[in-house]
């Protein structure tokens, strides 16, 4: 028995749709500016450029249905994303084999302290203070590939208090899921339990306490989250 000097942290896990099982999370990779319209609204060129990724922490994922408004910010934005959950990994994964490593898909939100992220960008500093705070990735259950296949097109939509704010299609992703997996594996050794948030369409915007976000991705159901 390992003699840890403090209590071991709990394993972070998210529900699996139609099952009592849980998907344990190892790492969370997030791709930036993966929809052209979102790149434009953030002031960037939408042309296909090498992808870039940042990370959230595993325990940022939260399936409680509530998003506590975080401290030290006055501008928290919603970003709906399709979540990709890996069952295996490796290095230098060939593009043709990338989807073999996917366990399933789900819906997540990349909540962002936009004002703090903007400050970090201006100062040339990392984004974690704007992206990787507690419960900053509300998520729904993982839907196994055996049930939903590999979604590559279909509506991606977010409503705030019943009004559509974000809308796009999975086929508008600049870098597709196999490309993300293959590219990441050139720089990191991917493994079972890794999660990729695949980017957000245009329409990102602020939320306040009392708002209700309703996110949907075709074939993956809906995710309802209250801002508290």
Automatic annotation (TrEMBL):
Residues 28-227 form the Fumarylacetoacetase-like C-terminal domain. Keywords: Hydrolase, Metal-binding, Pyruvate. Signal peptide: none annotated. Gene3D superfamilies: Fumarylacetoacetase-like, C-terminal domain. It holds the Pfam family FAA_hydrolase. It comes from the Bacteria. GO terms for molecular function: acetylpyruvate hydrolase activity; metal ion binding. PANTHER family: ACYLPYRUVASE, FLUTATHIONE S-TRANSFERASE. This is Fumarylpyruvate hydrolase.
